[in-house]
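Appendix B. Chain record.
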Amino acid sequence: SLNLPARATVLSSVGYRLEVELTAEWQARMLALVDRHPDTHWLLVGVGENVAMHSLPRHARIYRVSPQAQVQAWLAASDIFVNPPRVGGGGAVAMAMEQGVAVAALCDGDAGDKLGPFAAQSIDQYFATLEDWIAQPEVRSQAGAALKERFFERLDFSSAAATQGLIDACYAASACFQQRRGLTCE
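Structure tokens predicted for this chain:
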């Protein structure tokens, strides 16, 4: 529906709070990235019409997409999912991983937790990875395939390992709660 060129490298970010989550410094680095790569287009999915124009980056190849009931289709149309430094984003990251989309996120949050060793350790590493993926589609595809495999190994609850991980996490949370209350588990 956006009529993007066939050769475009499509970046996407998803969220209803993007206007407050995207810091000025991070936006400036993303704008510079888009400027350096004329075939790169960035979709901001989940931006309502009431969001002030000045609160998000403006560029001919940055698109505001209103909130979507089926965000998976937008992720599937993306080459790279760009999770900004923020609290949250793990749900969209998991959906992108499931689809085999390369995902950029920092290690210190819910999104980075999903990525594990694939999460960037610093903002400089984050942007270096984006540069590599834009310049080298084969490397980007390999990253997407590895993240898809990680999704099905660790996050897809139809797998035994992910199911057991959730059960273990529930037991651990219950034990911590009981310990805080001064109760013993029986």
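Further analysis of this model is presented in Appendix C.
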